[in-house]
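Problem: given the chain below (261 residues), write out its structure.
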Amino acid sequence: MTGDIGLDVAADPGVLSAASAADPVVAPLNRHQVKRLRFYFQQGRHSLSYTPDSIDLDLIALKTIVLEATGSGYTKIKITELGLATLHQRRQNDLSVRQVHHDLGGRVAEYLREQGRITWENIQFKNLMASEDLKTSGGEPYQFWKHVRPDVFSIAPTLDMKTANPCVHEVKVSRADFLSDKAKPEKRQAYAMLAQAVYYVAPEGMIQLHELPKEVGLLVEVKAGQFTLVKRARKNKMTLQPHHFLNLIVKPGQYPENYGI
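Solution.
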């Protein structure tokens, strides 16, 4: 079926009906199907030229969308109550995972402050990167700024840059998140430009030593707020740049409780 397809929602996009909100049954969608369903929801009632594909067929079979012919010569896609309930449940799950991630990040930051370090959570930095493929007109590697946002960044409380020992701690609360992050060497390369050591932080038993990239360390939480160093990170020779320090000034960090006493 090809042509103009209008998008519609079978219920108020902002509010689920009482029946669907109370009904725990949701459709077993994979991530590609969820992405498509979210796309339809975000489009609202706007029409577009679109050709249904196998993902749409699956969504129809799973009763999360329906196709309806209209008198205007195009087909309307409607998200069903089950589709809305599924999106709502996925959102609740995502919020729950984010909260678990945020809470673990807060606990590891507190642990690092207990070790005498100054911490920043979810602070954004930018690094000047060089492209391996793109060249300037003069034949030099094309340079660009790349933003990176470590879960926890920390330094030792010192005025000597040589002993600041900047570290990054990346929080992982699921196997999927860890494996996805492990498959991104460019992210670790970006961290290497602002940290002498990079660690994964995870619940005990979630990450095995043999799975770690060789340069990354591992800190595990054995009980809430109690951490054990399983593997020390390989030290990376680097120096923080002035633009890194500007970030640390603009967003002040949290200091150890007895700092300055």
